[in-house]
Amino acid sequence: MVFEVKCPQLARVEMEKLNKELVEVVTAACAAQEVVGLQLYLQMQGFLSQVQSNTSFDDQSQEIAVVAEELSKPLVLGRRAIYFHHIIASNKRRVVKEWAIELELGGFSKIGWPGVVIVEGAELNVQEYVRRLQHLRWKQITVRGEQTEQIQDGGLDKLRRLPRNFHEFPENGMSDLAAACRTAGLEELFLTTMKIYSKLDDKEVQASAENASTKKKSKRNGQKAET
């Protein structure tokens, strides 16, 4: 008696094993002159149940491995300074705050033209927050400032500089937002939203410009000496 069972959900090795087992069942039943239909059904049912059980175990093992890998990574605190052309719509103002609270981020937003968001929390949560905001329709949204700190002893809260709650400043609240960031020691992060970067960067740019100017003068003086 020749037959073949096909199941697209099974791997080729599993199909070969199943067909081999079914042939053995049929051969034994024919030798004993027994009806084989029920035996084939029970054999297939048992085989498929075992495959499903093994697959579920493998999936669980993979999930555990992924979680273990994430837990083994060093925890990082992240901050972002996000610039918007404007934040006006009530639904957007609402999710800016609600998502921050959901992801356990502290910080501020300033509505109106322009809009500004400063947030702080676990780096992975900060990344998720930015990703969600970027999926909304904005005239302009740009992450202009970014800071990360690896968490040592004491945990995440020890490194926080912004309040755990999320505060919204009104349209005329830019100076208040600047003052709040200055008080938290994050003035440089706030200034990135205005494209004003650290004094160290300014000094480096100025030094590079002075070096270039000196080289040009030396080159001109050398050309004059040759003539």
TrEMBL record:
Renumbered residue ranges of the record's region Disordered: 205-227
Coiled-coil ranges per UniProt: none
Pfam families (alphabetical): Prp3_C
Record field: compositional bias (Basic residues): 214-227
Residues of the Small nuclear ribonucleoprotein Prp3 C-terminal domain: 81-195
CDD domains registered for this protein in UniProt: RWDD2_C
The protein, known as: Small nuclear ribonucleoprotein Prp3 C-terminal domain-containing protein
